[in-house]
Structure formats: C-alpha cells, structure tokens
Design goal:
This protein has 168 residues and is α/β, with parallel strands linked by helices. Helix 1 runs parallel beside helix 6. It starts with 7 loop residues before the first helix and ends with a helix.
Amino acid sequence: MYNNIFDNNDMIKLQNILRIHNKTITVAESCTGGLVASIITKISGSSDIFNGSVVTYSNKIKNQELNVKNETLQKFGAVSCEVVNEMLNGVVKKFDANYAIAISGIAGPTGETKNKPVGTVVIGICDSKAHKIVNIYHFNGSREEVQIQAAKTSLKEISKFIQNTLDK
C-alpha cells in the first residue's frame, strides 16, 4: 500500500547509500508507533545503518526520553513544528546518529482540533550538523492509511535529504 511513495527497493537504495558512506539513521516516532523503524528493519543487514529508535507516544515520554521541553509541548502542542524540532535534537543525540526522522501527528479517528484535523502530521528530518527540514502534511484515509503515508513520506524525504547532503 502506498508503494508509489516509498517502496522496498527505495529502502534498499537508502540503506546502500548510508552503508557506502558509513552513516547511520535513527527515528523518533509518535503517531506512526514504530512503523518507520519496522520498515527500515524489514531489510536484512539494517543493523549497520540503524542503531535504534524510540516511540514517544505520550508527552511525558517525549520530555523524558528526548528532552522535549514541557513549555514547548504546552505552548504549541505535540503536533507542531516546534515539538518535532526538539524531538529531532533529542533523538539524533540519544542514538548518536548521522541522520534522524521525527514524526508527530493525528492519525485519527479521534484527537483532532479545529486547527489540526485528523491526518495532520509533522515530519522532521535532520543531520547531526543541525541541518533540518520540518514540514506539516495532511494525509487522508483511515488511521492505518495516515500512518503508512506518514512513515513512507518521512523515508522518501530523508532519502532526498541524504542524497542532497552527500552530493555537496
């Protein structure tokens, strides 16, 4: 499902690029519940490019495990560019990785607000040198469809980001 976004061959290419350049990737996930990590580790041999990840579903764990400030969570909400930015900072340090993905969103069917409907997902990517891209996406479909689209979009975006940083 949604293989047009990012498929197994794309994952193999991403892992090979990381491997060739001796780089690693990590993930901080909220609404995707570990799906990105699962996609990465479906490929045999992924342990040389993937040290680990963390699912920080609750605000308490975002703060405890990734040092996301409570003030940031209260002021902007968990589904915000500000929180995802802090999640990126925390996870790239925690797992001593070269690249990171962070995701927070509303997969539904509950949890929406007037300004953040179901399908709103914030995806951030970065490298260990603090180059970052954080964007808000709006996905349609069931809870599972939103999660799959978010996970695959994050991998597609980090693939482009890595290729661009390595080309420089």
